[in-house]
Each structure stands twice: as structure tokens, then as C-alpha cells.
Design brief:
The chain is of the alpha+beta class and 527 residues long. It has helices spanning 2-66, 69-77, 80-96, 131-139, 178-185, 198-204, 207-214, 268-318, 334-367, 378-395, 409-416, 418-433, 459-474, 503-519, and strands spanning 102-107, 111-115, 143-148, 153-163, 166-176, 191-197, 218-219, 222-225, 236-240, 243-251, 257-266, 399-406, 441-444, 449-455, 478-480, 483-485, 489-495, 525-526. It has two domains: 34-266, 2-Layer Sandwich (Beta-Lactamase); 378-526, 2-Layer Sandwich (Alpha-Beta Plaits), CATH 3.30.70. The chain contains 14 helices and 18 strands. The strands form four sheets. The chain has a six-stranded antiparallel β-sheet. A five-stranded antiparallel β-sheet has the order 2-1-5-4-3, with helices on both faces. Strands 13-14-12-17-18 form a five-stranded mixed β-sheet. A hairpin with a 4-residue loop joins strand 13 (441-444) and strand 14.
């Protein structure tokens, strides 16, 4: 019996030692992963700070240059010499210090005016190579992004040049992507490489510019500036032989992944210290486990059951499966009390989520609705126009456009007051809603000017709808006290053409037809 007990103790000791060794190795792996994750997060923070610093740097110069009176006058006078004389000293100084790769001026929408990388080439349409310039020309908004143009891959800040609310053109400041490699090398990285998608390099770079990249190593479709590493081209990090490879994804203007910045860090010293620490820790743990294993075994089972139950509750909360939560139990100990408190928190979270969801929906709707007429406002058109235009282009849908305006609206306001004018606007929208479909977009474009976007409607159908609306408004009678008010509207119609570059070109044509209707006597439809 004694030997059986000794043998059982021996087996139990072997089991505990084996378990301790196993978990020590797992802990080393876990801590190694944690260290790698910390390095990965640090490198990402460093990149974010680098990127912000470079964006601020480029944007500051772009904003300064785009608002300069000399630059504006050079555009107004079509004077390249004035522009070159003003900007070239700045460009030369920054370029020699590797602080800037490019300054490029464009006339709207995307015609090269002055390119300091090659002053001999100008008056070239670059719209196919520089979609970002077209975007700035149509949105009147600056854009900072990575881009592969005809000359190099890098970071660009593009700013509109505006004079008296009129877009003259734009200016693009650029940094070569190698700048980020140099910056990380100064931060004591073991190695830094840049992986660039070869397909995009071939597509966008000029053949003579691609020759430089063609001589670089090619692995899995990526040209590599620096040392090639046998890693997966995907964001995140990898650990190999105590080396951490941080992979930072580079996304361009089109939201395409053009490459990765790969930073190699050596954590071998940290791992060796960790292993020595784990050896000492393991010796103490083995001794402690053998001493107290009999006491803690049942206790651990009880605790783990409780913890697993609470993990299950947390998982249900995380996945918002509140209907599957177990009921509260009678409290026998602190863990039961904690379990019940967790269930109380779950119910509170469920209530908050419901309230927040409703509030988000309410705020979203209010942001795009006109406060008086409760139809879409100008902000909706500004923010959704590009999205709608792309949708119609991709689906090859015929889309009709109607611009309408109340005839002599100022006279109504002057005669009856603005309260009656508001009533007229409200009744107008109510009447028009009767003649359009659920999928049509009804937008208050200005004070008394309205816009209708009619998907799946050719020009003849659009004209028919416009006529029905005109007749309905002509026959509309509005009571204002003891007086009855009637009014008319003028309408201009157009449709989206395949040659249009954006939705606003079709809107502009409809607006021109609206003014033609005004000139031709009002209360009519022109197309």
C-alpha cells in the first residue's frame, strides 16, 4: 500500500512537472507574442506620427502656395515664368534636402501647368494618371494620400487653387515613399524594406521610371526596396527566429493596397532574459505545485467552472445575444455575487444599445433632412452625389434630372409674409411627393429651388413627370386666412450622359433649362 502511495505521488509529481514545463513553454510563446505585438503597435504608432507629420508638412506648404497672390496671378495671367521664379527656390531647397520630391501645378480639371520635376513638359492632360487631381477639381476639397503616378510612388498633398469662388487649378506636393524607410532606419530598426505591388508599378509608372523597380527583387508580385524577407504580404506582424516583422499596409487614393512597409526588429535579448526568468520561475512553481496540489485541485475546478460560466456570459454580451443570458442565482459566495452583477450590467448595456441605436438613426436622418420641408437638403447632395453617380454608372441606369423653381416667390413673401411663403414651400413639396416614386430623390436645392433625381427614367418619361408636376402645382390652391393663393413653377430637365464626369454636370444642364423656362414666360418645362 505504501509503495502504491509512493508510486501515485511519483506519477503525480511527473505529471505536475510535465504540465509546468509545457505551460512554461506556452507562456514563453505568449509573452513573445505579447512583446511582438507591443513592437508592432509601437511601429504603427510611429508610422501614424510620421504620416501625420508628413501630411501636416505637405498640407502646410500646399495651403500656403495655393493661397499665394503670386501663384493666383500666375494662373490668371497664364504666366508659367512668374510661377517658376516664385516657387523654384523653395522646391530646390527642399528637394536637395530630400524633404520634397515634387511640386506640380495643374490647370483645371487636370492639365499639367508647371511640373518642377520636369519643367519642359506642360499642357498635358494627366487625368488618366492623376484621378486625385480630378477629384480635387470637382470637390474643391484638398486631399492627402499615397499615390503611384507616372514618376514615382509616394505621399501627396493636393490642394485646390481658388480665386473668388472659382477653381483655377490645383497644386500637388509629393514625397517619395523611400522617405518612410529612411525615417524608420533612424529609429534603430534592425532592417526596413518597402514591398510595392509590381502590377501597379507597371500600370502607372512611365516605362523609363519603371526600369529602376524592374531591377529590384520580385517576391510574390512585390518589388522590394531593401532586403527581401520571406514573409506573407498581409498587414500585421510575423515572428521568425526571434525577429519581429511589422507589416504596415500602404493604401492609395483608390483604397487599393499598393504595398507594405516592413520593419524588422530583433527581440533575441528579451527572449533570452525571459527564458532565464522562466527557468527560475518554473523551479519555484514545481515545488509549490507538489506541495499544494491536493488542496488546490478541487478549488481550481470550482473556480474555473465559475469563470467559464462568466466568460460565456461575457461572450453573449459581446455578441449582443441578450435573450440567451441565464437567470440570476441565489448568491452563495463572492463569485455568485459577481456573476449576478454581470447579468445586471448586461441588462443595462442592452438598454443603452437600444437607446443609442435609436439616437444614431434619428441624428442620421436629421443631418440630411431640410428642417422646413422634411425632404433631403443640399448637404445630402454634396456628400452623396459622387456615390450616387458611381452607382448609376456601374448599373448603366438611365437617370432623369428635374430642376424646378417657384415663379415670383419673392412677390409671395413680400405680399403675404414669410410665414405664408414657408406654407407655400411645404404644400409644394407635399404635392410633388404625390407624383414621384419611393426611389426618387427629392432635394431642396436652394430657397425656392428644388431638385429631383429620377433613376430608371429616360428623358421622355422625365418630361412627362415634369408636366404632371407643373399642372398639379398650377391647380394647387392654398388658403391663407381669408385669401386663396395660387402660384406656378418653371422646370428644366436633363439626363445623365455617359460622357458626364459627375452628377453635377447633368444638374447644371437642367439648371440652364430652368432659366430658359423663366426667360420663355415661366410656368413651363424646357429640355
Amino acid at each position: 500500500m505504501k509503495y502504491k502511495v509512493y508510486f501515485a505521488i511519483f506519477l503525480l509529481s511527473v505529471f505536475v512537472i510535465g504540465l509546468t514545463l509545457y505551460y512554461s513553454q506556452q507562456e514563453i510563446k505568449l509573452i513573445t507574442q505579447q512583446k511582438a505585438k507591443e513592437i508592432y503597435e509601437l511601429r504603427n504608432k510611429e508610422f501614424s506620427l510620421m504620416l501625420k507629420n508628413k501630411k501636416d508638412f505637405l498640407n502646410a506648404f500646399a495651403k500656403f502656395i495655393s493661397s499665394s497672390d503670386i501663384v493666383i496671378n500666375a494662373f490668371l495671367e497664364n504666366n508659367r515664368t512668374k510661377l517658376i521664379n516664385f516657387v523654384k527656390p523653395l522646391y530646390t531647397s527642399l528637394h536637395e534636402k530630400d524633404l520634397l520630391e515634387e511640386i506640380h501645378f495643374f490647370k483645371r480639371p487636370a492639365t499639367s501647368f508647371v511640373n518642377f520635376a520636369n519643367l519642359k513638359v506642360f499642357n498635358i492632360d494627366v487625368s488618366k494618371a492623376r484621378a486625385d487631381i480630378l477629384w480635387v477639381s470637382t470637390s474643391f476639397q484638398p486631399s492627402t494620400h499615397f499615390y503611384i503616378c507616372r514618376l514615382y510612388p509616394g505621399l501627396r498633398a493636393t490642394y485646390p487653387i481658388i480665386y473668388k469662388d472659382r477653381l483655377l487649378g490645383s497644386v500637388s506636393f509629393g514625397l517619395h515613399i523611400k522617405v518612410f524607410k529612411n525615417m524608420f532606419e533612424k529609429l534603430n530598426a534592425k532592417g526596413v524594406s518597402i514591398y510595392l505591388n509590381d502590377k501597379f508599378l507597371k500600370k502607372f509608372l512611365l516605362p523609363k521610371k519603371y526600369l529602376f523597380f524592374k531591377d529590384l527583387p520580385l517576391i510574390n508580385g512585390y518589388r522590394i526596396i531593401g532586403t527581401p524577407y520571406l514573409i506573407e504580404a498581409a498587414p500585421g506582424y510575423e515572428i521568425k527566429n526571434n525577429l519581429v516583422y511589422t507589416k504596415i499596409k500602404i493604401v492609395d487614393f483608390f483604397n487599393e493596397t499598393i504595398g507594405y512597409i516592413v520593419i524588422k526588429d530583433d527581440i533575441s535579448k528579451t527572449i533570452n532574459v525571459l527564458k532565464n526568468y522562466m527557468k527560475n520561475k518554473m523551479s519555484i512553481e514545481i515545488f509549490s505545485y507538489i506541495t499544494i496540489i491536493a488542496i488546490l485541485f478541487l478549488l481550481f475546478i470550482w473556480i474555473f467552472n465559475k469563470i467559464n460560466e462568466m466568460k460565456k456570459i461575457l461572450s453573449l454580451i459581446k455578441n449582443q445575444q441578450f435573450d440567451k443570458l441565464p437567470p440570476k442565482q441565489k448568491e452563495k459566495d463572492e463569485l455568485d455575487s459577481f456573476r449576478n452583477s454581470l447579468l445586471d450590467v448586461a441588462q443595462t448595456i442592452k438598454t443603452y444599445i437600444s437607446l443609442l441605436t435609436q439616437k444614431v438613426e434619428d441624428y442620421s436622418q436629421k443631418a440630411y433632412k431640410d428642417g422646413l420641408t422634411n425632404i433631403f437638403n443640399r448637404r445630402f447632395l454634396k456628400e452623396k452625389a459622387h456615390e450616387l453617380f458611381l452607382k448609376y454608372q456601374l448599373s448603366d441606369t438611365q437617370v432623369g434630372i428635374i430642376m424646378l423653381d417657384i415663379d415670383d416667390f419673392k412677390k409671395i413673401n413680400d405680399t403675404y409674409g414669410h410665414d405664408v411663403g414657408d406654407m407655400v414651400l411645404i404644400r409644394l413639396t407635399e404635392e410633388i411627393k404625390k407624383h414621384i416614386r419611393k426611389d426618387d430623390f427629392f432635394i431642396r436645392y436652394g430657397g425656392e429651388e428644388f431638385l429631383l433625381i429620377l433613376p430608371n427614367s429616360n428623358i421622355q418619361t422625365t418630361y412627362t413627370i415634369a408636366e404632371k408636376i407643373r399642372e398639379a402645382i398650377q391647380n394647387l390652391k392654398i388658403k391663407a386666412g381669408d385669401k386663396t393663393i395660387s402660384f406656378t413653377i418653371s422646370l428644366g430637365i436633363s439626363e445623365i450622359r455617359k460622357t458626364d464626369k459627375n452628377l453635377f454636370e447633368a444638374i447644371k444642364r437642367a439648371d440652364e433649362k430652368l432659366y430658359k423656362a423663366k426667360r420663355n414666360g415661366k410656368n413651363r418645362v424646357e429640355f
